[in-house]
Amino acid sequence: MAEVDGPIKQADTIMLNYPLNWNYSVDIMKNDLEFYELMMTDRTPAMTWSWFTIGFKWVNEDSKMRSFFLKSYQDYIIQPFKVTSYFSNCHQWWRGG
Q1: What is the pTM of this model?
Q2: How big is the chain by its Cα radius of gyration, in Å?
Q3: Which residues contact 63 (CB under 8 A, 6 or more apart)?
Q4: Distance (Å, rounded) from C-alpha 19 to C-alpha 61?
Q5: Contact 73, 46 (CB under 8 A)
Q6: Which residue, among 57, 50, 43, has the nearest Cα to 87 in the 3D structure?
Q7: Torsion region of 87: left, alpha or beta (phi above 0 gives left; psi -120 to 50 gives alpha)
Q8: Full DSSP string of 38-82
Q9: Is 17 exposed, middle or buried, given 0-12, 13-18 or 19+ CB atoms closer than 10 A?
């Protein structure tokens, strides 16, 4: 099992099958998703949750897929104009962040 010093904030590891065109089995993909799901931090970019959404769809985990889909955008909408941000709870949207 891989060792990680602390929480991670990117989905790079679960994205490997896409650009490298690796044929993961459903079991391997599900294992990777569940392993890295526990290591995510709340300050992760929105794209990460989107990749978890896609991954859980691939492994037919519909309830987790729905949960990550909602997480991929709900915390990133800034009121009052419903501007989206790359990071959750970021109120510096005028800087592009």
Answers
A1: 0.73
A2: 15
A3: none
A4: 22
A5: yes
A6: 43
A7: beta
A8: TTB-TT--HHHHHHHHHHHHHTT-HHHHHHHHHHTTGGGEETTTT
A9: middle
What value does the mean pLDDT of the chain take? 78
Which pLDDT belongs to residue 67? 94
CA contacts within 13 A on the Cβ side of 3: 1
DSSP letter string, 13-31: HHHTTTTTT----HHHHHH
73-to-16, 56, 70, 80 alpha-carbon distances in Å: 23, 16, 6, 16
Please name the residue that has the structure tokens 């650009």.
Answer: 19
Asked whether the beta carbons of 52 and 12 are under 8 A apart, the reply is no
Token pair belonging to 20 = 């490298």
Going from the C-alpha of 25 to that of each of 59, 60, 86, the distances in angstroms are 9, 12, 31
